[in-house]
Design brief:
Number of helices of chain A: 4
Largest sheet of chain A: 6 strands, antiparallel
Helix content of chain A: 10-25%
Strand order of the largest sheet of chain B: 3-4-5-6
CATH architecture of the largest domain in chain A: 2-Layer Sandwich
Largest sheet of chain B: 4 strands, antiparallel
Bound molecules: zinc ion
Shape of chain B: globular
Helix content of chain B: under 10%
Distance between the termini of chain A: 58 Å
Oligomer: heterodimer
Radius of gyration of chain B: 14 Å
Protein backbone atom coordinates (compact mmCIF):
# COMPACT_ATOMS: atom_id res chain seq x y z
CA UNK A 1 0.00 0.00 0.00
CA UNK A 2 1.42 3.43 -0.86
CA UNK A 3 2.44 5.54 2.09
CA UNK A 4 0.96 9.00 2.33
CA UNK A 5 3.35 11.92 2.48
CA UNK A 6 3.98 13.23 5.97
CA UNK A 7 2.18 16.51 6.54
CA UNK A 8 4.61 19.34 7.20
CA UNK A 9 4.09 23.06 7.70
CA UNK A 10 3.97 25.17 4.53
CA UNK A 11 6.67 27.47 5.95
CA UNK A 12 9.36 27.19 8.57
CA UNK A 13 9.51 28.54 11.15
CA UNK A 14 5.76 28.96 11.56
CA UNK A 15 6.31 31.90 13.93
CA UNK A 16 9.15 34.41 13.69
CA UNK A 17 9.68 37.89 15.10
CA UNK A 18 11.86 40.74 13.83
CA UNK A 19 11.94 44.49 14.41
CA UNK A 20 9.12 44.12 16.93
CA UNK A 21 6.76 42.49 14.43
CA UNK A 22 5.58 38.90 14.21
CA UNK A 23 5.03 36.78 11.13
CA UNK A 24 2.83 33.76 11.75
CA UNK A 25 1.57 30.87 9.67
CA UNK A 26 -2.08 30.94 10.68
CA UNK A 27 -3.91 27.70 11.55
CA UNK A 28 -5.36 26.03 8.45
CA UNK A 29 -8.97 26.94 7.78
CA UNK A 30 -11.31 24.86 5.69
CA UNK A 31 -11.66 26.86 2.47
CA UNK A 32 -14.43 26.31 -0.07
CA UNK A 33 -14.61 28.12 -3.39
CA UNK A 34 -18.17 29.17 -4.27
CA UNK A 35 -18.99 29.79 -7.93
CA UNK A 36 -22.67 30.70 -8.27
CA UNK A 37 -24.47 29.17 -11.27
CA UNK A 38 -25.89 31.64 -13.81
CA UNK A 39 -28.77 33.64 -12.37
CA UNK A 40 -28.49 32.00 -8.94
CA UNK A 41 -26.71 34.71 -6.93
CA UNK A 42 -29.85 36.14 -5.28
CA UNK A 43 -31.17 32.73 -4.19
CA UNK A 44 -27.67 31.78 -3.06
CA UNK A 45 -27.52 34.85 -0.81
CA UNK A 46 -30.89 33.85 0.66
CA UNK A 47 -29.75 30.25 1.19
CA UNK A 48 -26.55 31.39 2.92
CA UNK A 49 -28.34 34.06 4.93
CA UNK A 50 -25.77 36.73 3.98
CA UNK A 51 -24.98 38.99 1.04
CA UNK A 52 -21.80 37.83 -0.66
CA UNK A 53 -19.62 40.96 -0.94
CA UNK A 54 -19.97 42.63 -4.35
CA UNK A 55 -16.68 44.48 -4.00
CA UNK A 56 -13.33 43.02 -2.94
CA UNK A 57 -14.19 42.73 0.72
CA UNK A 58 -14.72 40.21 3.50
CA UNK A 59 -17.95 39.53 5.42
CA UNK A 60 -18.34 37.44 8.56
CA UNK A 61 -21.66 35.61 8.84
CA UNK A 62 -23.56 35.09 12.10
CA UNK A 63 -22.29 31.48 12.30
CA UNK A 64 -18.66 32.66 12.06
CA UNK A 65 -18.05 31.60 8.45
CA UNK A 66 -15.90 34.19 6.66
CA UNK A 67 -16.82 35.04 3.05
CA UNK A 68 -14.29 36.87 0.85
CA UNK A 69 -14.63 37.84 -2.75
CA UNK A 70 -11.84 35.99 -4.58
CA UNK A 71 -12.47 36.93 -8.24
CA UNK A 72 -15.36 37.81 -10.52
CA UNK A 73 -18.18 35.34 -9.75
CA UNK A 74 -16.07 33.58 -7.15
CA UNK A 75 -16.00 33.75 -3.36
CA UNK A 76 -14.07 31.82 -0.71
CA UNK A 77 -15.85 30.66 2.42
CA UNK A 78 -13.57 29.73 5.31
CA UNK A 79 -14.13 28.19 8.72
CA UNK A 80 -11.90 26.50 11.31
CA UNK A 81 -10.75 22.99 10.36
CA UNK A 82 -12.99 20.16 11.48
CA UNK A 83 -16.19 22.21 11.46
CA UNK A 84 -17.59 20.46 8.37
CA UNK A 85 -17.92 23.58 6.23
CA UNK A 86 -18.19 21.65 2.95
CA UNK A 87 -21.08 19.48 4.13
CA UNK A 88 -22.86 22.52 5.59
CA UNK A 89 -22.53 24.42 2.30
CA UNK A 90 -23.52 21.36 0.27
CA UNK A 91 -26.69 21.07 2.31
CA UNK A 92 -27.72 24.67 1.71
CA UNK A 93 -26.49 25.55 -1.76
CA UNK A 94 -25.34 22.57 -3.82
CA UNK A 95 -27.97 23.31 -6.51
CA UNK A 96 -27.08 27.03 -6.67
CA UNK A 97 -23.29 27.08 -6.92
CA UNK A 98 -20.22 25.03 -7.82
CA UNK A 99 -18.43 24.19 -4.57
CA UNK A 100 -14.76 23.23 -4.62
CA UNK A 101 -12.63 22.39 -1.62
CA UNK A 102 -9.53 24.63 -1.73
CA UNK A 103 -8.30 23.98 1.80
CA UNK A 104 -4.92 22.61 0.70
CA UNK A 105 -4.33 25.16 -2.05
CA UNK A 106 -3.49 28.24 -0.04
CA UNK A 107 -2.06 29.26 3.31
CA UNK A 108 -2.22 32.55 5.16
CA UNK A 109 0.73 34.41 6.66
CA UNK A 110 -0.21 37.01 9.23
CA UNK A 111 2.02 40.07 9.80
CA UNK A 112 1.32 41.87 13.05
CA UNK A 113 2.84 44.69 15.05
CA UNK A 114 3.48 48.41 15.13
CA UNK A 115 4.57 49.43 11.64
CA UNK A 116 3.04 46.43 9.84
CA UNK A 117 1.64 48.81 7.23
CA UNK A 118 5.10 50.27 6.53
CA UNK A 119 6.60 46.79 6.13
CA UNK A 120 3.74 45.62 3.89
CA UNK A 121 4.11 48.77 1.77
CA UNK A 122 7.66 47.76 0.92
CA UNK A 123 6.51 44.73 -1.06
CA UNK A 124 2.87 45.44 -1.98
CA UNK A 125 2.25 48.11 -4.65
CA UNK A 126 -1.22 49.28 -3.56
CA UNK A 127 -2.26 52.17 -1.33
CA UNK A 128 -2.60 50.76 2.20
CA UNK A 129 -3.73 53.98 3.88
CA UNK A 130 -6.62 53.06 6.21
CA UNK A 131 -8.91 55.44 4.27
CA UNK A 132 -8.49 53.14 1.25
CA UNK A 133 -7.58 49.77 2.75
CA UNK A 134 -8.94 49.29 6.24
CA UNK A 135 -10.34 46.33 8.18
CA UNK A 136 -12.54 44.14 5.96
CA UNK A 137 -10.90 45.23 2.72
CA UNK A 138 -9.43 42.60 0.41
CA UNK A 139 -7.13 43.09 -2.57
CA UNK A 140 -5.88 40.70 -5.21
CA UNK A 141 -2.40 41.99 -5.98
CA UNK A 142 1.33 41.22 -5.87
CA UNK A 143 3.78 40.90 -3.00
CA UNK A 144 7.11 41.24 -4.78
CA UNK A 145 6.58 38.85 -7.70
CA UNK A 146 4.04 36.60 -5.95
CA UNK A 147 0.24 36.91 -6.45
CA UNK A 148 -1.56 37.22 -3.12
CA UNK A 149 -4.93 37.92 -1.59
CA UNK A 150 -4.25 40.65 0.95
CA UNK A 151 -6.67 41.46 3.75
CA UNK A 152 -6.43 44.01 6.53
CA UNK A 153 -7.51 42.74 9.92
CA UNK A 154 -6.44 45.84 11.86
CA UNK A 155 -5.59 49.18 10.25
CA UNK A 156 -1.82 49.86 10.31
CA UNK A 157 -0.93 46.87 12.51
CA UNK A 158 -2.25 43.59 11.05
CA UNK A 159 -2.26 42.28 7.47
CA UNK A 160 -2.97 38.76 6.22
CA UNK A 161 -1.28 37.44 3.08
CA UNK A 162 -3.11 34.49 1.53
CA UNK A 163 -0.87 32.75 -0.99
CA UNK A 164 -0.66 29.53 -2.98
CA UNK A 165 0.93 26.98 -0.69
CA UNK A 166 3.85 26.30 -3.04
CA UNK A 167 4.79 30.02 -3.02
CA UNK A 168 4.46 30.38 0.75
CA UNK A 169 8.11 29.82 1.71
CA UNK A 170 9.30 32.32 -0.91
CA UNK A 171 6.77 34.91 0.26
CA UNK A 172 7.75 34.22 3.87
CA UNK A 173 11.37 34.98 2.93
CA UNK A 174 10.41 38.23 1.19
CA UNK A 175 8.33 39.44 4.14
CA UNK A 176 11.09 38.51 6.57
CA UNK A 177 13.66 40.48 4.55
CA UNK A 178 11.29 43.47 4.63
CA UNK A 179 10.85 43.06 8.41
CA UNK A 180 14.60 42.78 9.03
CA UNK A 181 15.19 45.94 7.02
CA UNK A 182 13.18 47.83 9.60
CA UNK A 183 10.71 50.61 9.08
CA UNK A 184 11.72 53.43 6.73
CA UNK A 185 11.50 56.91 8.34
CA UNK A 186 10.54 55.12 11.52
CA UNK A 187 10.63 58.31 13.59
CA UNK A 188 7.40 59.24 11.78
CA UNK A 189 5.54 55.93 12.29
CA UNK B 1 2.12 53.96 -15.76
CA UNK B 2 -0.87 53.08 -13.61
CA UNK B 3 -4.26 51.82 -14.79
CA UNK B 4 -7.41 52.30 -12.73
CA UNK B 5 -9.20 48.97 -12.92
CA UNK B 6 -12.96 49.57 -12.47
CA UNK B 7 -13.03 46.64 -10.03
CA UNK B 8 -9.74 46.98 -8.13
CA UNK B 9 -8.77 50.66 -8.25
CA UNK B 10 -5.44 52.18 -9.36
CA UNK B 11 -2.83 49.49 -9.92
CA UNK B 12 0.70 49.41 -11.27
CA UNK B 13 1.47 48.33 -14.81
CA UNK B 14 3.11 45.02 -13.80
CA UNK B 15 -0.32 43.68 -12.79
CA UNK B 16 -1.60 43.96 -16.38
CA UNK B 17 -0.89 42.38 -19.75
CA UNK B 18 -1.45 44.19 -23.03
CA UNK B 19 -3.67 42.10 -25.32
CA UNK B 20 -3.92 44.23 -28.44
CA UNK B 21 -6.38 46.28 -30.47
CA UNK B 22 -9.86 46.19 -28.90
CA UNK B 23 -11.63 47.22 -32.10
CA UNK B 24 -10.67 44.09 -34.08
CA UNK B 25 -13.63 41.96 -35.10
CA UNK B 26 -13.44 38.44 -36.47
CA UNK B 27 -14.63 38.40 -40.10
CA UNK B 28 -17.56 36.25 -41.21
CA UNK B 29 -16.53 32.70 -42.10
CA UNK B 30 -17.10 33.29 -45.81
CA UNK B 31 -15.39 36.72 -45.83
CA UNK B 32 -12.86 37.30 -48.63
CA UNK B 33 -9.27 36.18 -48.15
CA UNK B 34 -8.08 39.79 -47.81
CA UNK B 35 -10.43 40.40 -44.82
CA UNK B 36 -8.79 37.45 -43.02
CA UNK B 37 -5.29 38.67 -43.87
CA UNK B 38 -6.22 42.06 -42.38
CA UNK B 39 -7.69 40.46 -39.27
CA UNK B 40 -4.75 38.17 -38.61
CA UNK B 41 -1.77 40.29 -39.66
CA UNK B 42 -2.54 43.97 -40.17
CA UNK B 43 -2.79 46.48 -37.34
CA UNK B 44 -3.31 50.24 -37.35
CA UNK B 45 -0.72 52.38 -35.63
CA UNK B 46 -2.78 55.43 -34.67
CA UNK B 47 -1.11 58.62 -33.42
CA UNK B 48 -3.59 59.55 -30.68
CA UNK B 49 -6.37 57.69 -28.89
CA UNK B 50 -6.45 53.93 -29.30
CA UNK B 51 -8.85 51.35 -27.81
CA UNK B 52 -6.84 48.51 -26.36
CA UNK B 53 -7.54 45.28 -24.49
CA UNK B 54 -5.68 44.82 -21.22
CA UNK B 55 -5.91 41.80 -18.93
CA UNK B 56 -5.73 42.33 -15.16
CA UNK B 57 -4.01 38.99 -14.63
CA UNK B 58 -2.55 39.58 -11.18
CA UNK B 59 -5.66 41.31 -9.82
CA UNK B 60 -9.26 40.44 -10.57
CA UNK B 61 -8.44 38.69 -13.90
CA UNK B 62 -10.92 40.88 -15.79
CA UNK B 63 -10.49 41.93 -19.43
CA UNK B 64 -10.51 45.71 -19.76
CA UNK B 65 -10.89 48.19 -22.60
CA UNK B 66 -8.37 51.00 -22.14
CA UNK B 67 -8.52 54.13 -24.28
CA UNK B 68 -4.93 55.38 -24.34
CA UNK B 69 -3.28 58.22 -26.20
CA UNK B 70 -0.31 56.66 -27.99
CA UNK B 71 1.46 60.04 -28.15
CA UNK B 72 1.23 61.01 -24.48
CA UNK B 73 0.27 57.72 -22.71
CA UNK B 74 -2.66 59.64 -21.22
CA UNK B 75 -5.38 57.16 -20.19
CA UNK B 76 -8.79 58.49 -21.18
CA UNK B 77 -10.87 55.63 -19.79
CA UNK B 78 -10.71 52.08 -18.44
CA UNK B 79 -13.83 49.95 -18.54
CA UNK B 80 -14.85 46.33 -18.29
CA UNK B 81 -14.63 44.62 -21.69
CA UNK B 82 -17.66 42.51 -20.77
CA UNK B 83 -19.88 45.42 -19.68
CA UNK B 84 -18.86 47.82 -22.48
CA UNK B 85 -16.98 46.30 -25.43
CA UNK B 86 -14.97 48.68 -27.58
CA UNK B 87 -16.79 50.04 -30.63
CA UNK B 88 -16.11 48.46 -33.99
CA UNK B 89 -13.53 50.27 -36.07
CA UNK B 90 -16.22 51.38 -38.52
CA UNK B 91 -18.31 52.96 -35.71
CA UNK B 92 -15.51 54.95 -34.09
ZN1 LIG C 1 -8.96 44.42 -11.55
Amino acid sequence: MPETLAAHPAVTPPLITASGLSLTLTPTRETISIGPFAGCLASLNTALGITLPETFATTIAADGVVYSRAAHDQWFATAPEGTGLMSRLEASCMKLAALTNQTDSRVTLSLKGIGARAITSKIVPIDLHPDFFGPGHTALTLAGHIPIILTCSNADTAYDFTVFRSFAQSLHHDILVAMNGGIPNSERV
Amino acid sequence: MRLTCPHCGARALEEFTYRGDATLRRPAEDAPHQAWVDYVYLRDDPAGYHSELWYHGVGCRAWLVVIRNTLTHQIKSVSSAVASPAPNKSDS
